Amino acid sequence: MSTWFDSHCHVQEEYLGGGERGEGERDLSVVLAHAAAAGVDRLVCIGTGVTTSAQAVTVARASRRDGAAPTAWAAIGLHPHDASTGVEGVAGLLTDELAAHDGVVVAVGECGLDYYYEHSPRAEQRAAFAAQIALAHAHNLALVIHARNAWDDLFDILAAEGVPERTVLHCFTGGPDEVDRCLRAGMFVSFSGIITFKNAVEVREAAVRCPLDRLLVETDSPFLAPVPHRGRPNEPALLPLVGATVAEVKGLAVESIAVSSAAAAAAAFAIAT
């Protein structure tokens, strides 16, 4: 069986427990057992605020205590939806968790710009994004970016603040032009279940253009379940369906995408293989 690396998922309590961001109550141990059975042996659990970031760290540390696949790492960040709350909380949490020196925190994020929903004013989104870029630089961590309908401002801020050496554009929703901009900036590009959607022609074209050493796969679970599970809660166990579509559009074996995307994720998050 191929082994996979889910580079971006939300399997912490807030998302599995049917809370404000969740999609129905589920048990973490069951979700992780499904993932292991599907060949997903590594994942990064992504924070979107102070509470979910702390929970992501808990998931990562528990995976080491339990000693069972998948092994998890954590990202600490503030989603653009909540940018108006300020980055002070996640910045403090990041400092505290890094003090443990246990290697479970590997990234700042997800952070960025979302001009589709605009749950926070654009100016506050831009300020929070810039502040989190600075955190990634200061702590030599990967940066995980959320971008929707905001490409020009996204690249303007990255140009002003400097693109961290290891930067991931997660859940890529653009086309060939946007993926070229990401690659020129030195980013890794992560493809989600969206690539399986019938109308995602440009996303598939972008995947064709993306070199394997820069291409990651993710579920963004519990969101964006791939076809044929679209519309239902997603989970890391469905990652091979994302990888299979990437393999199909690139004309490669599924196994090769499992290997290359896992290697790219390990490089993006500076995880030893």
Q: Short description, anyone?
A:
By secondary structure, this protein is of the alpha/beta class. The chain is built from ten helices and eight strands.
Could you tell me the number of beta strands?
8
Order of helices and strands: EHHEHEHEHEHEHEHEHH
Mean pLDDT: 96
Unreliable stretches covering 5 or more consecutive residues:
none
Instruction: Report how far the terminal alpha carbons are from each other.
Output: 18 Å
Q: Tell the overall outline.
A: globular
The helix tally amounts to: 10
Strand order of the largest sheet: 1-2-3-4-5-6-7-8
Radius of gyration: 17 Å
By oligomeric state, this entry counts as single chain
Question: What does this 3D model show about the protein?
Answer:
By secondary structure, the chain is an alpha/beta fold. It is built from ten helices and eight strands. It has helices spanning 13-16, 28-37, 50-66, 88-98, 122-139, 151-161, 176-184, 201-209, 239-250, 254-268; strands at residues 4-9, 40-46, 71-76, 105-114, 142-148, 167-169, 188-191, 215-217. Strands 1-2-3-4-5-6-7-8 form an eight-stranded parallel sheet. Strand 2 (40-46), helix 3 and strand 3 form a beta-alpha-beta unit. The longest helix is centred in the middle third of the chain and has 18 residues, at 122-139. The chain is globular and about 45 Å long. It starts with a strand and ends in a 5-residue tail after the last helix. The mean pLDDT is 96.
